[in-house]
Design brief:
Blueprint (H helix, E strand, L loop, with lengths): L1 H15 L18 E7 L1 E2 L7 E7 L2 E6 L12 E6 L21 E5 L7 E5 L10 E6 L4 E7 L3
């Protein structure tokens, strides 16, 4: 105990003089880079679509990253990004609108733009491992523009 007290006192004295010993120097680590987990192409539902979505981990956040070439209908109002537990979310719906059944999806955010790269943070309350697909959905008319599976 006495030795520990002396080492601590010596370390504090050196630190006060600006000469912290190596064992007390703060270490820094390079932050973990975002890890890509999966990329899937969007599939057409009501409207033609291009591009893909990538699920990435960035520290403790999960992101949905739409590709630079993403494009969906610019004329559709009230577009949302949603997830569904089903890997085939439109299996029980019919064209032309491909409506979603209440309770079969979770809205993550309004779609930022009908085209181009964009990123969405998945709320911590949404477990993507329990989700099967991501959707571009018109809430106003309950019409699915496009979807992509989340897992290969």
């Amino acid at each position: 105990m006495r030795t520990t007290t002396h080492i601590l006192a010596w370390s504090l004295a050196l630190a006060a003089l600006g000469a912290a010993p190596a064992m007390l120097q703060a270490t820094t680590s390079t932050p973990a880079r975002a890890a890509e987990t999966t990329t899937q192409a969007f599939r057409q539902a009501e409207k033609p679509v291009r591009g893909s979505v990538t699920v990435r981990r960035d520290g403790d956040r999960t992101l949905l990253v739409f590709s630079d070439d993403f494009r969906t209908s610019e004329s559709a109002p009230d577009l949302k990004v949603a997830v569904s537990p089903s890997p085939t979310p439109l299996a029980d719906s019919r064209p032309p609108a491909y409506p979603l059944k209440a309770g079969s999806y979770t809205v993550l955010a309004p779609l930022k733009s009908a085209s181009g790269a964009q990123t969405y943070v998945v709320p911590a309350s949404v477990d993507l491992s329990r989700q099967g697909s991501v959707l571009i959905w018109c809430e106003q008319f309950n019409a699915t523009m496009a979807w992509a599976p989340l897992h290969g």
